[in-house]
Amino acid sequence: MIRIGTHLSISGGVSNSAVEADRRGYGAFQIFTSSSRTWKQRLPDKSDAKSFSDRIRSRGIVPFAHIPYLCNLASPNRDVLGKSVIMLRDNIESCNMLGIRYLVLHLGSHLGEGSNTGIKNIADSINSVRDSLGELTLLFENTSGYKNSVGSTFTEIGRVIEESGSEGIGICLDTCHAFAAGYDIRDRDGLNRMIEEMESNIGFDRLGLVHLNDSKFDLGSTKDRHWHIGKGYIGMKGFENLFGEGHFSKGNFVLETPANDDGDDTTNMKAVRAVLKKVGLERDVVP
Ligand SMILES: [Zn+2]
Q: How many angstroms does the Cα of residue 112 sit away from the middle of ligand 1?
């Protein structure tokens, strides 16, 4: 079974995103549960939250939440770290109100203090919120390998999971970030190298979501610049290679491709469907 969709706006109320996902025929989608640009996170109002959760449950659509990029659980700066943990708590509460079972978070930056410090700060933060998780799983997303970032390799993400106590934790694979970090998923050898590293350090049972993004920059650029499916350096062949591999022939896939024009999401979803058709997976897509 394959569920695909895009990141959607919550403008006008979070339940609008569920209506839109349903209208577009998505099997999965992703939202920010509050403003992605402010530290202060608003909880959804109760009736809006109920319409959201009623809609996704009745239609069998799987929603994902993404924490805002301001959140830096690896930060050595006490003020930023404190605000990040509050943001995480608020996001967990919103997800539980909305019936969302997965929250994606970037592992942040250690700002030059070294990855050990970063990993310890993340693990302490996760442990401090664990009791509030309930049914929610936190998905650690791989990063593009920009300077001082934590989590650009699956070996390092495996360490973070281990230090964080592993319960209630999964991962989100971002194809653009992996490619920017040097995993050449376009060819069989490069993809196999990534799969082996994921398998031995994390395990595929923890893969909750794939962010399907092409990359505006070339292999190993460390630049986090998502691009339209098939139009970047990964290209249609690269995505065919990915979906053609058994580990990625099922699961949840969300696009975070640029959506400047109304038609961008439609064009990118069509490109993904063309890839799925090419590798014979079209019939596995739900709904
Ligand atoms: Zn992503």
A: 23
Cα 153–chain centre separation:
15
Count of CB atoms situated within 10 Å of the CB of 213: 27
Instruction: Kindly state the tokens that stand for 29.
Output: 């989608």
Question: pLDDT at residue 168 above 90?
Answer: yes
Q: How many angstroms separate the alpha carbon of residue 55 from the centre of ligand 1?
A: 25
Q: From ligand 1's centre to the CA of 47, what distance in Å?
A: 29
Mean pLDDT over 11-19 rounds to 97
**0.85 exceeded by pTM:** yes
Q: 229 CA to middle of ligand 1, Å?
A: 14
pLDDT in tens, 189-214: 999 999 999 999 999 999 999 999 99
Rounded distance from Cα 189 to ligand 1 centre (Å): 23
Structural domains of the chain sorted by starting position, each given as residue range(s) with its CATH number in brackets: 2-286 (3.20.20.150)
139 φ/ψ angles, rounded to the nearest 5 degrees: -105, 115
The Å distance, Cα 16 to ligand 1 centre, comes to: 22
Instruction: Tell me: pLDDT of 261 over 90.
Output: no
Average pLDDT on 21-49 reads 96
